[in-house]
Amino acid sequence: MTQLISKHFQKLVKDANGYNVGMWYSAKSSMGPLVKAVKGKDDSDLNWKNKDGKPGLVSLLRDVPYDKKVKYASAIKYLQKVTEGHNSKIFAALKEHADKLSKSQQRYTIPMLIGDGEVNDVNRAHAAHGLCQNLTLMWLKEQLKGSGSQFPRINTGNVLAHKESYQSTKDAARMQKQDEVNTGDELGLRVERKTWGHPFSSNDIVQGKLGKALYVRILNGGHALGIFRVNNTTIDFFDSNAGSYRLPIEKWQAFIKCYHEECLPKKWPGTYVKTSFDQVSEVKLL
């Protein structure tokens, strides 16, 4: 039997806890059921999500208070990452072309909603499908206003340990509008669809010809990104799976090529990604 996941998870818990895991998990701690469910299990028997009618490990986070989720953030994120088969450093290559301003990983902050009494079951079900639309519009609003702290300048560290990142996920989960126009209305934004099938490589995107703040769709509308023109020489780029980046306009071609050809295949292996945005919309404050 291979128990590498179990052993490393227990080590991370022990590092955060400071004493023997074997003694700790039976002491009625809120994290105890999760440790007990993983301890001694074969790697192939560990599932993060529900499978074959059996609850996944994520369900055991329901009774873990938020402060404990923060304390054991490294262990929780590790467990989700390896059991779901996530690649590492998916967007790392972007730093060769841009400065990373903030970190956002919705795939890890969304499970933290489980057990939060301020988030109802409808909100959680909505969030389970992803929150890229809402998070992107929230980010664009913050850029347009020039103030706010929902997307703090976190470029290192575990996002699960940052309250601001969790709060933005929580706020995004509460909005359940069906499209970006209605979500924009709720946020005090006007979202005007400008064009379809716009090439990634087009400089119109970054030269302000389509607007200062842009909401764009890729993957047949399945994922949303934000682009914000800071000034005549600089743009910011946001992906809710990675964070925000700042780059000179002249580096746009190299940046988007790297994002398209290196990063997206790691994020969605085997998925064909067109060389154009499915939809581009301009965003303004109401």
What does the secondary structure layout of this molecule look like, with pairings?
Elements: H1 4-17, H2 21-24, H3 32-38, H4 66-71, H5 73-84, E1 99-103, H6 106-109, H7 121-127, H8 132-145, H9 163-174, H10 180-187, E2 189-199, E3 213-218, E4 223-229, E5 234-239, E6 243-248, H11 252-267, E7 276-285
Antiparallel strand pairs: 1-6, 2-7, 3-4, 3-7, 4-5, 5-6
Helix pairs in contact: 1-5, 8-10
Summarize the structure.
This protein has 286 residues and is an alpha+beta fold. The chain contains 11 helices and 7 strands.
User: How many structural domains are formed by the residues?
Assistant: 2
Output the CATH topology of the largest domain. Answer: Cathepsin B, Chain A
CATH class wording of the largest domain: Alpha Beta
CATH architecture of the largest domain: Alpha-Beta Complex
Radius of gyration: 20 Å
Average pLDDT value? 88
Could you list the spans in which at least 5 consecutive residues all have pLDDT below 50?
none
| Count of helical stretches | 11
Beta percentage is 15-25%
Features:
alpha+beta, 18% strand, Cathepsin B, Chain A, 11 helices, 36% helix
Folded structure, characterized:
It is a single chain. 36% of the residues lie in helices and 18% in strands. 36% of the residues are buried. The chain starts with a helix and ends with a strand. The mean pLDDT is 88. It is an alpha+beta fold and 286 residues long. The protein has a 7-stranded antiparallel sheet with strand order 1-6-5-4-3-7-2, covered by helices on one side. The protein folds into 2 domains: 4-84, no CATH class; 92-285, Cathepsin B, Chain A (Alpha-Beta Complex), CATH 3.90.70.
